[in-house]
Structure to design on (193 residues):
């Protein structure tokens, strides 16, 4: 059973899954914004281009690698992005980032997961959007966080994965940020390292 986390809550991934986790996946899903038509004309959906990001930091807080729509794989291959979905069309997760925790460089201490709206609409306008963390082994949903209706910003620092010995802790952050890409959010992200 998945946990529904609120901002600031954290869970030990090993304790939650009951086993040592090896690979986790961040799934982000959303739908376009409903457009109201006039007398039945012009109704439909306005495309929303949310972008999932995984930012890898060392113990000093230095960004050592990033996976996002312009770099779909980390340098060591341990983190992979499914590709850029520019509309939110379709069922299920629209973008995913898969993280092989066993292959992450030992120098990586924190992975920050974030999302930006490249098309610029605020999260208040997006009716359905979520992120979820899944244990690849058995496709078990470990945690879920609703993104829709979060405010007038167009970026969100979703969560962190933090190395604690041989275990990883997942923390739901849910902090507002502004900007079309993760670059714009780095000053806000540093507060969560």
């Amino acid at each position: 059973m998945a946990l529904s986390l609120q901002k600031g809550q954290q869970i030990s991934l090993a304790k939650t899954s009951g086993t040592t986790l090896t690979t986790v996946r961040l799934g982000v899903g959303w739908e376009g914004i409903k457009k109201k038509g006039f007398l039945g004309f012009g109704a439909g959906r306005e495309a929303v281009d949310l972008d999932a990001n995984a930012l890898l930091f060392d113990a000093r807080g230095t960004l050592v690698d990033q996976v996002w729509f312009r770099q779909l794989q980390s340098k060591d291959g341990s983190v992979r992005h499914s590709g850029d979905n520019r509309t939110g069309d379709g069922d299920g997760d629209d973008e995913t980032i898969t993280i092989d925790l066993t292959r992450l460089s030992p120098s990586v201490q924190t992975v920050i997961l974030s999302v930006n709206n490249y098309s610029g609409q605020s999260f208040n306008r997006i009716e359905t959007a979520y992120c979820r963390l899944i244990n690849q082994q058995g496709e078990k949903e470990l945690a879920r966080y609703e993104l829709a209706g979060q405010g007038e910003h167009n970026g969100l620092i979703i969560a962190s994965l933090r190395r604690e010995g041989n275990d990883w802790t997942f923390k739901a952050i849910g902090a507002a940020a502004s900007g079309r890409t993760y670059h714009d959010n780095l000053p806000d992200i540093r507060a969560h390292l």
